[in-house]
Specification:
Layout: H1 3-25, E1 29-31, E2 37-39, H2 41-57, H3 62-65, E3 74-80, E4 87-93, E5 102-108, H4 122-131, E6 135-139, H5 151-165, H6 167-170, E7 172-182, H7 184-199, E8 206-210, H8 235-245, E9 271-276, H9 282-294, E10 299-304, H10 311-314, H11 317-335, E11 342-344
Parallel strand pairs: 5-6, 5-7, 7-8, 8-9, 9-10, 10-11
Antiparallel strand pairs: 1-2, 3-4, 4-6
């Protein structure tokens, strides 16, 4: 090995550390003269790192939360056509002796609009499919900044519409159809419920919103910030995700981007809204539950104490298990037409 090559190899760790420092200290987006944001080089590198880390970590771990990996009768991988491209989905068919068409729950994973993949919800999808019982369709929607607003939410809506339209041929019960998601997936689920009410192409039995992001027009400084506590979702990270998904400020007040800002929510599907005491997004879910209730929508609302964003996936174990069981019971009630709005202590 010559001296030049040896010197370069010796400097590589230092250069790598310097690159990472630059990436995480730099603002990950640039604001143009029109006020719209563009994810810059530092942001693209950071996003690539975050996506790799999430993919390598995997999803919910059965040992971490204490839930077994429930076997399914069949797990089917297929694509659903939409006007925004074909969407890969994973379909979980539970083992059941019922001869009737099964209810169906469409799951939208979280990830701040820019991260995430369906398999991070695999364990939860199996749990809900088996115990409800119902068919769960886990959606691999497009991500920002490659596909910013409104493409992902419209794509999610068309997936649910396709499921409703093809339910009979698939052996599903379109009268018992629910949609739900986590964090950004909760945002999309609330927007799908708004579109379903507006377009009247199908009816939802439930919108399940797990620590949802529901007001992207609000400044990060106005969110639920705990100065003396390190939160999973920080104002800086929240701003990065928002600028990647909604580059232009004018779009952020659109109810499909910020469902909390919808003036009329009458006639929406019943809702289960789960929030976390320490979560940056806690007040989004709490305020949306209040708005829905004030306009006559049945709501089950639960704030889990002593936990932060994404606790249903990463723990602690006991509140995560409690939240999963709450999702299960509420789905069962929704499919039985028995949702009664209430706050749960």
């Amino acid at each position: 090995m010559n001296k030049t090559k040896a010197a370069l190899l010796a400097l590589a760790p230092v250069a790598g550390a310097g690159l990472l420092t630059w990436v995480y200290r730099s603002t990950p987006y640039s604001i143009g003269p029109d006020g719209c944001a563009t994810v810059n080089t530092a942001g693209k590198i950071r996003l690539g790192i975050l996506r790799r880390l999430l993919a390598s970590f995997g999803g919910v771990r059965s040992k971490r939360l204490g839930f077994p990996k429930v076997p399914m009768q069949t797990i089917e991988h297929r694509t659903i056509p939409t006007n925004y491209g074909e969407v890969p989905v994973t379909v979980y068919w539970p083992s059941t002796t019922s001869k009737k068409p099964l209810p169906v729950y469409v799951n939208l994973h979280g990830g701040g609009f820019v991260l995430g993949y369906p398999m991070q919800d695999d364990l939860l999808c199996r749990f809900l499919a088996h115990h409800t019982p119902c068919v769960v369709i886990n959606v691999d929607y497009v991500l920002a900044p490659e596909q910013p607003f409104p493409t992902p939410v419209l794509q999610c809506y068309e997936v649910v519409r396709w499921v409703a339209a093809h339910a009979e041929s698939l052996g599903l019960d379109a009268r018992h159809l629910a949609v739900g998601g986590h964090s950004a997936g909760g945002n999309y689920s609330a927007a799908v419920a708004l579109l379903a009410r507006e377009r009247q192409e199908f009816r939802l039995a439930l919108q399940l919103l797990d620590y949802p992001s529901l007001n992207l027009a609000e400044r990060e400084s106005q969110k639920h910030i705990l100065p003396r506590r390190k939160q999973v979702l920080t104002p800086e990270l929240g701003a990065f995700f928002k600028h990647a998904y909604l580059p232009c400020p004018a779009d952020r007040s659109n109810p499909l981007a910020s469902p909390l800002l919808a003036e009329d929510v009458t006639g929406l599907a019943p809702a289960l809204i789960i929030t976390a005491e320490y979560d940056f997004l806690r007040d989004d879910g709490r305020d949306y539950a209040q708005k829905l209730r004030q306009q006559g929508v049945p709501v089950i609302y639960r704030e889990f104490k002593g936990v932060d964003h994404a606790f249903t996936h990463f723990g602690p174990k006991e509140p995560a298990q409690e939240a999963w069981n709450l999702m299960l019971r509420t789905l069962q009630q929704a499919f039985a037409g028995k949702i009664v709005g209430q706050d749960l202590a």
